[in-house]
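Field: COMPLEX_INPUT
Field: COMPONENT_COUNT = two
Field: RESIDUE_TOTAL = 663
Field: MODE = joint
Values follow.
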Amino acid sequence: MGATLFDKIWSRHRLTEDESGKTLLYIDRLVVDDVRAPQVLKNLERRVLAIRRPDLAVVVQDHSVPSFRTHTSLGGSQFVDATRVAARRHGLRLLDVGDEEQGISHVVMPELGLVLPGSTYLCVDSHSPTVGGVGALGLACGSSELEHVLATQAMWVRKPRQMRFRLEGRRDDGVYAKDVILHLIGRLGLEMARGVALEFTGELIASLPVEARLTLCNMAVELGARRAVVAPDEATFAWLAASPHAPRADVGRRARQDWEDLRSDQDATFDVDLVIDCSELAPQITWGTTQAQVASVAGHVPDTAARAGLDEAVWQRALGYMDLSPGRRLAGTRIDRVFIGSCTNARLADLESAARVLVGRKVADGVRAVVVPGSRAVARKAEHLGLRAIFTDAGFLGASRAAPCARAAAARRSPPASASSRPPTAISKAGRAPACVPIWRARRPPRLPRSRARSAIRVR
Amino acid sequence: MEKFTSVSGAAAPLLIDNVNTDQIAPVQFMRSLEPDYETALFARWRGDPDAPFVLDRPCFRRAPILVTGGNFGCGSAREVAVWALAAHGIRCIVAKSFAEVYRESLLKNGMLPVVLEPALRADFEACVVAVDGQAPFTVDLEACRIDAPDGVTFEFAMDAGERMALLEGLDDVAMTLRHRSLIEAWERQTLHDRPWLQQVGEA
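Field: COMPLEX_OUTPUT
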């Protein structure tokens, strides 16, 4: 019987099994973020444990970094400072605020070529499976487990069931990876892939750029999956060849040859194997309070709880929060905020797609629109391609400084900028709002320098 | 790691599904390097004088057992959502199911995650609701059994390795480093076969 892509990565990293059937897996790359680093590194010192392979860990400042320069004093800086001190003390590679390579972990690690096809990657973040977009196995854990892996470079994991989604059909213009995954979540539910290792394949995947595959694997988490992978192909190899730290020369050629085998064998079997036709797929909108409350852009809010597949109480709460009536047509719904960013949608291809829509247009009155590139490199390239000018001319608030991704709950509870009593609505195709917004922006609107503030004035 | 053998006390019912880590420990309380976990715990659900949160009712203030629904601890991987419950004195959570990362973090903190057979669950939940904190339950990991105040017992299954680690309070790092030679051999072999995995960012 053939092996799946997941089987292959698993068996390459398998060290041993325990009596109860858990596997000890070698972990190739560790990310320690700025929320975890101060405490985790201090705990290791307290336990008198050495970091086994400091050269395989990367400390990334991303969760507490303020997007807007004016917001440095609001509390994140103590994490940033403590992280910097701890990383230096332990001799760890640090992607620090202001560094050219800094950004959101799951954006920068593949982008820099620091996580590679067929490798294992661990981070205290539920969206670690993002790196499956380049054929790496991303694993999530808690802080204590991170301590254990820093000290041992290995993790006990039970091999999960495996699922394959074969996505067939061609995408229309205006349909992106985010639409594909929201459609799947809406159709299959938040628990469809609970705990499984998921492989995406098929005609549609082959047509997706690498960045879109990262988006897809990122949100597979919202299907319940804890691991998600796409087999690397020519597009992956070309994308990685352009990254600054991917292997080159002889080692690069050997790696490339090795990666050719990172695909499921013809006769590999899965516990669940679905073929999903995506040829009719339209852009998707989440209308409620979870990612599974989703409809196509031409669709309607369901007219009953039963049609929405929800309990009456959940249904009422979602409608109430969003101030929507049953059966309402979604097109034409007023939008309060637009956010483009986060580890889901902050890569260059995402910004390019949005900019194509924005050229020559303005953000409507009453809409607060924010774009936060996922990394310094994305911001640099966006600037170079003239995208930043397109966003600011359109009336977006842009933050090129950093790439945050946390503290969303606080954001949801802040009053909307319009000072209405209603919570901000999440109807936005662009980002995973309100699940990820720039951190400090949530507490108070940014006071931009004069020149930028002018560019943010909306003109119709 | 802290040992877990058995615990006795009130069992607090929070019988809802999909309680996520941001509900357990809201992120806005984590803006300090040393947050007050006890204050953070379920902060958004507490403080309504007309509808006191279950853990604020006098009979559950020191409850060591929490009884809850499916997919408990879903959402963000943050372990503070475990530490916040520990700060309140919770040692054992009986749920319909757990989010995986959360369950693993409980074990790492010497806390016991219990999932009862579906056939027993409804009876157990009804019993917890009926007792309403007026008498203690006992969770015994050695016997893998919960004793209700009326003498009824509920048995549960537990992975043998996880059970042993909790009972003995084993040090996870020391346990894994028993395999140090395997790890070193893997690294030597991989440096030879796939050097790009063992050398980060060297072109």
